[in-house]
Amino acid sequence: VVYQIREPWALAEESGFNLNGWQHWNYDGEVIRQGLNFNMWHDLTNNWWWNMGFNREFSVMDDLITRGGPLMKQPAGIEYWFGMGTDRRKPIEVRLFGNGDRLDDGVLFNQSYSLNLRLRPAPNFTFDLRPRYRKTTNFAQWIEGIDSDDDDEDDQFVFGHLKSNVWDVTTRVTWSFTPEMSLQAFVQQFVTAGDYRDIKQLAHPRTYSFVPFTGTLDEDPDFNRRSLKSNLVFRWEYRPGSTLFVVWSQSRSDSFDNTDPDFKPWSGMWDALGDEGDNIFLVKVNYWLGL
Q1: Is this model's pTM higher than 0.85 or not?
Q2: Which residues contact 50 (CB under 8 A, 6 or more apart)?
Q3: Predicted confidence (pLDDT) per residue in 195-235, tens digit
Q4: Which of 36, 43, 140, 251 could form a disulfide with 14 if both were Cys (CB 3.0 to 4.6 A apart)?
Q5: Among candidates 268, 282, 289, 181, which has minimal Cα distance to 232?
Q6: How does strand 92-103 pair with strand 181-202?
Q7: Contact at 8 Å (CB) between 113 and 98?
Q8: Cα 16 to chain centroid, rounded
């Protein structure tokens, strides 16, 4: 159900309101998603904008979380998001986004926030910077399936209480020297850490109940990782329809599997500059045959 206001009114230049509902089944007839959604968006008279919405997801059976094992109950929960931004026509544009979700009884809680800054000091030059932070607390995060009786089928489905943090910063620069010649740069730095506690296993299929896991895991699931990815692309259309691309791509990463991972976003980003990685240089030429 959609309702839109296409002319100025008390709160905005233009607005929209949406009410949605859904139900999904798999091929076995199991309901795997059902919920309701309300969201709205507003373009303001000063050309700023904002939007927001939320979902109410009802309890269903999850056919993927045990990675090929039995169905497992997924508790009901709420998801929300919001966004706002300044005038898109200005040389400086700022956008703020946030979202989160929470299952009933607090068994899952996610938060994510990002800030987008766009600078256009000239028509042919754009600079974008987007830092983003995400925090997760999940009472039952999948770890692994274990075949304890050697019948080639997993019979223990192991989960843990995960607390994790993610920090990434994405930078993009586009510089058009002429309509036929441009230079584009992309850099993304990523740091994450996750700590598992309260290791347990699913007690019964089609439930959200657990019992302590007394076996041995194949490896420590805790993690601490960082990475840096970048691309530099020079494009030249040296004749109509014929283009030359010169590309330098770089990928660096490192990981530390430890029992007490520390989340250090700033030092992790700096240290990623010195991690081992791959450098790829390539040239691509297109030539248009005007037949």
Answers
A1: yes
A2: 41, 42, 44, 82, 83, 84, 85
A3: 999 999 999 999 999 999 988 898 889 999 999 999 999 99
A4: 43
A5: 282
A6: unpaired
A7: yes
A8: 26
